[in-house]
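Recap quiz, item 2
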Amino acid sequence: MRIVIIGNGVAGIEAALAVRAMDRQSSITIVSEESDYFFSRTALMYVLSGQLQRRELEPLPRDLYTRLALSRSRARVVGIDLAEKSVRVADGIAPIPYDRLLIACGSRPRRPPWSGATLGGIGHFVTLADLDWLEGEVGSRGAAKRPRRVEHPWVIGGGLIGIEVVETLLALGYRPRFALRDEWFWPISIDAREAGWIEARLRSHGVELRAGASVEGFEGEGRVSRIRVSGRTEPCDLAVVAIGVEPNTAWLEGSGIALEDGAIAVDEGLMTSAPDVFAAGDCAGIVGPGGRRRPQQLWYTARDQGRVAGARLLGEPARYVPGLPYNSAKLMDIEFTTVGHVPPRGAGHSWTFEERGPVQSMLRLVVEGERVVGMNALGRRWDHSVFRRFIEEGLSLAQVIARLSEAAFDTELVPPLVIPAADRARGAEVS
Amino acid sequence: MQLQAQEGLLFTYRSGLSSRGLLAWVVALGLTAFYLALYFTEIFTPLALALGLPSKWTLYGALYTLVMIGGGARYLSKHGSSRYNRVRIGVNVAVQAVLAFSLPFAQSKLGAHEFYFSYLWPLKIEYLYPATFVELPIYLGIYSVVASFVAVPILTLRYGKRWYCSWVCGCGALANTFGDPWRHLSSKSERAWTVEKITVHSTLALALITTVIVAANWAFGATHPDFAAFGFEVQRFYGFFVGAILSGIVGVAVYPILGPRVWCRYFCPMAALLGLLQKLGRFRVAVKPDMCIACGNCSTYCEMGIDVRAYAMRNQSFTRASCVGCGMCSHVCPRGVLRLDTKGAAHARLPVLPSR
């Protein structure tokens, strides 16, 4: 059987590994425009900052592709011929025939809707090409070539990529301005108090935060030199736009494969509307609560979907059943863990605890009725899988507070979190 | 300073000195020249005597301690956000300054027996050579035997080899302070792992054999002159090859090229012995399930060349014989996936790739 996988990201490579774990016979071809080798996209910032080198982003030994007979085609896919069962690629390369196809082509950055957005000095930070571009703009520690002199860098977009670029620019000696559309940083995931802590860290390092900023356009001749934001014109000679990502599916328009809100519509078995064609990762729209399909754009979900897709490519009856959501991040020097259902903007009922003293941390447990349904934690390390179990078992707030130590994952020698009796009592009242 | 459990902000090890640039080679050659001069000439002796020190070795000990203090301060300026790091480096420096330098120095000044409490057989192989052993005051003899054959197994089974390699041992302490800027240079290849297993266990075997031969020589040498000559040669060879060449010149001079733990990883007989015990004990690197983003910071900054990420990506807590428990993989993980603990060795097989 001929298996073709479009995309060499985490969903694609996990699918290929899952296939090879079960089957040595089928041919596997991985088509990627971006990279010959699988790399950790979530770690691009470490290369820019000089903490890692490019090669260190590659989790697998390079000869693995040969050892597992995974052939690669470095090419841009431009379409699919469902009748012929082949993948069309750009630059005059012959179409690649498939018996089973997996589309794992990921996301692309959301394009800025503002005037002047095509000027030089404006870009994203999502792909290896973006890394090359930004390295050319600001240099990276240890890089041989000296970059141009950037004086007024802006980062636009109050999410994870935005804050990562800000932290990296700080590490490289710049003082970026950070424009947030909303009134606080990352409101989809954290509440105002949690964001306040992160924003204080940003300010203390010299970042100029512009909350509630409305970007109106860029100006310059060939290259950006000014930004219009909230009615004012300010100097700007570099802008990294990180206002979200969207499924990378424009090339599928008219192919006959059903899209929903731009994502490839798939069923529980990750099968698309076309026979023998599957989709996984950021480009796939997964049926969620309420029956609406949405892409799940996390490293973890792409990894899990890739494994399911691998089994499906071999005709195994696998289903992608997302468990309770969870995620992690590092916001400046503060680690973040979230599990379960935490409504955006701090909505809903929660019990919160702020730890001051030698260890600083924040913990928020979201409660619905008697039960804990979600948690947000900053500053300490927690084992999300234990919290998941708490939530799945339907523990009450008082029960979760009493059993917090089971989920602790702090480094040795760090004093454990102690919740004072008064705060425990608050928990008992809410329950 | 915050008593945080976490990594802190971005850092870099990418200066020319840290990435095998010209300066790195200059330092490596300088260190080689220094060790050759120290071991095989007496050019440092007049300086030592002029400073009122009893020998060039005391001068070397003073330098070693100073370099460790400076390197420790530098390390903590980068990674001192973690309490584990602060306590560990503090203990390292204290052990060096007190047990490995001041005490033996004071003993020699007072005409007492010079003794290094922080070095044990088989690293300090002569402490169990009968000729040395019988010269020791009785309490030091008891200390040597109890430390090597009672304390070492108990502590290692309980806490892992790190109690020695990353908290007490002077070689490890130098690597984690002065040598820290080069920790990412350790080879992560599977081939290096294969080589390491062969070489480190060979040195352990050599240390055991040498100890036995030297002991036999002590017992029977007087009546078997041919054997005595052979035994003396073996002892001399071990002292020269392992003591001077491997632990001194190779051990430190190659820091800027091959990373700071070359001696510990490939040659130290003590590390080999502790590694075997570690596999039987309770120490492990625990992996939080399903949280790894495969960024590679853990593997890159593992000074022992362990591909930590390969385990983390596959949710496998693990116990590797070579792991010295420095804690850097856990420290640099941006998602808090890794934790050193003592809940029982985890005998994961590496990476679980379909081809194996």
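Residues 326-430 of chain A form a domain with the Enolase-like; domain 1 fold (CATH 3.30.390.30).
DSSP finds ten helices and 27 strands in chain A.
End of item.
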